[in-house]
Specification:
With 275 residues, this protein is of the alpha+beta class. The chain has helices at residues 7-16, 20-35, 219-237; strands at 44-45, 51-58, 61-68, 95-96, 99-107, 110-119, 126-133, 138-152, 156-158, 163-166, 172-176, 185-193, 199-203, 210-213, 215-216. Strands 4, 6, 7, 8, 9, 11, 13 and 14 form an eight-stranded antiparallel sheet that branches. A seven-stranded antiparallel sheet has the order 10-5-12-3-2-1-15. Strand 7 (126-133) and strand 8 (138-152) form a beta hairpin. It is globular and about 55 Å long.
Length: 275
């Protein structure tokens, strides 16, 4: 067991070394804490269509478990569902984070689509929107003056216990490629905020400033989701076809970050770490 102040750096080092057992063990401990009611954590329905369990926030660092597709209650892996103002997707699914991402697949498979975005004043297809999120789950979306076109690269599929990374500012989208019968998949996601970076999304050319509120789920529903992810992790681990994790590409060093906007994480009860 390590103190909460060392959780994120330890997990990041484990990911960089390809030590997926540490990441899966951390996710399992966090999910068990939700199931057993040892944490105040509540799941959040993200506008991109997945359910987020915000496990940890340490200043500018964060850890979440994401459940895509299946019966997650998130409206699918690439859409939104619901009505505007309650978590619905109001832009395209193409976005760029203000934080460096490390993701490890817990079960199923995730399709990551890198996207090249170029400025285009004459015949643009989209406008860049800046997204500012508050700790209580409100996203303020503001259209910028930047007009663009984009081209998507081939889907990069990542299966159980595989790790992939995305640097802050890299545009991408996620598509469902899970081999599970119901299309479900889950990941544990590490994020480290980058100074002065802004969350961005490709939106409509004539879109207006607006606000989206992320829906927080009840504790009982959050526990059901955590329980389901644990069960699927056990099922995935028992299959002889589980694939080993590739070593992720190293990321450039970043200076220390300031606090980042949270999504309801419970920092007071971090799960224990391996090692």
């Amino acid at each position: 067991m390590m103190d909460s102040g060392s959780d994120y750096p330890t997990l990041e080092r484990a990911a960089q070394r390809g030590e997926t057992a540490c990441l899966l063990g951390y996710a399992r401990a966090a999910l068990e804490a939700v199931v057993q009611g040892r944490t105040r954590l509540r799941a959040v329905v993200h506008p991109l269509g997945f359910v987020c369990l915000p496990v940890l926030r340490e200043g500018g660092d964060g850890v979440c478990v994401h459940l895509h597709g299946g019966s997650s209650g998130g409206g699918g892996s690439s859409g939104g569902g619901g009505r505007p103002g309650t978590g619905a997707l109001t832009t395209s699914a193409i976005h760029a984070h203000s934080w460096d991402l490390i993701s490890c697949v817990l079960f199923g498979a995730i399709g990551n689509v890198p996207v090249r975005v170029v400025d285009e004043e004459r015949r643009p297809t989209h406008r860049i929107f800046a997204v500012a999120s508050t700790p209580d789950g409100v996203d303020d979306l503001r259209p910028t003056a930047r007009l663009v076109r984009f081209s998507a690269e081939p889907v990069r599929e990542h299966g159980p216990e595989q790790i992939f990374t995305m640097a802050a500012g890299e545009f991408h989208s996620t598509v469902g490629v899970s081999g599970e019968s119901d299309g479900a998949s889950a990941t544990v996601v590490l994020g480290r905020s980058v100074e002065d970076a802004v969350d961005l999304a490709l939106g409509p050319l004539h879109g207006l400033p607006h606000r989206v509120e992320r829906r927080r789920l009840a504790p009982a529903r959050s526990a059901d989701i955590a329980r389901g992810v644990l069960r699927r992790m056990d099922e995935s681990a028992s299959r002889p076809t589980a694939r080993p994790a590739p070593r992720p590409r190293p990321r450039p060093g970043r200076p220390e970050r300031g606090p980042r906007s949270g999504t309801g994480a419970d920092p007071g009860t971090p799960p224990g770490l391996c090692g």
